[in-house]
Amino acid sequence: MKTLILSMATGCLLLGAVSAGADMHGDMQQLAEEKQCLSCHGREDMTPRAPGFSSIAAKYAGGEMKGYLVDVVLTGGEDHWGSATMPEPGMQRPEVSEEEARQLVDWILGMHEE
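^ that's the sequence the OP posted. Answer follows.
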């Protein structure tokens, strides 16, 4: 009986973790949409305007460049991936807080592990 209860409790915890992970993915997808990241970036490989999140995740796997990536999200710039600028000239994007930038970078880097 104890084993059955322990198994059920473990199953509930795992299901909760999977559900929380799905919720976080949805939250980060929504944040990326709100901050207009998806106007230029896609989840997969290169897009016509900018590298896809999966390409970014692969290039910066390991997380050593996380601080650099947070700065890129916050300040934009150019020449960090070919000749593209972020945001594109003439394009306005909503302000991104440092916490939001960290969350987005963690989400993007996590795509390398998927």
